[in-house]
Amino acid sequence: MPNVELRVPFTQKDEARRLGARWDGKTWYIPAGVDRTAFEQWLPTPQPPNIRAPGWSLAGSQRECWRCKKASQVFAIALPPEYEAWTVEEDPVDDHWQSGDGLVLLSYVSAVPDSVATELRLRAPRYRVDYSQTTQSFYWMNHCEHCEAKLGDYETLEESGTFYVLGAGFNERNLTIESFHPGSGAFAGRCGSHIGVE
Question: Per-residue DSSP letters for 62-78?
């Protein structure tokens, strides 16, 4: 049985360690062979997808780290114009999948398919699940390549600057995209928002 990853907030790390969880420098986990029962509160809860697409790409850019002030590479998941987003209406009967109308970058990504998680760990090891004190949640976030500081999605994706500059065309944003699964490798995940790229 392999190790099982946990989502332990920093304020609960001592309790997790006391129960037998281990830290590998990036992630808390239950060692192979240890009973999971005591760790239920930190096991990731499966979440239904709220965005899906026939494929996905990894977008890369640079931003300044708030801690060390050095430029660090940052990443975001990009979905093609054929994506669909789950739309929640006032009456749940009216909830539906709505077709996209352009390339989008995902922010506050809380769930991805296992195959995508594996690719992300290989291609962008500093883009990984971590806990945000600001949002009080776990999501896929960037970390500085120099000092490992958390580089949250608000400053990286939501605020004008790194990937997203209001009114700028796609080529003016210094945005690079590395495609992982051209023509295949469907994506179905969960995110807090998706940002259109012109």
Answer: EEE-TTT--EEEEEEEE
Compute the distance between CA of residue 28 and CA of residue 35 in angstroms, rounded to an integer: 15
Q: Dmax of the chain from CA atoms?
A: 53
pLDDT tens across 19-46, in order? 999 999 888 999 988 899 999 999 988 8
Q: Which H helix or E strand runs over 15?
A: helix 13-19
Q: How far is CA 102 from CA 1, 55, 95, 98, 119, in A?
A: 42, 13, 21, 12, 24
Contact 143, 153 (CB under 8 A): no
Residue 45 has a pLDDT of 86
Residue-level pLDDT at 1? 57
Q: What is the dihedral of CA 101, 106, 112, 113, to 10 degrees?
A: 30
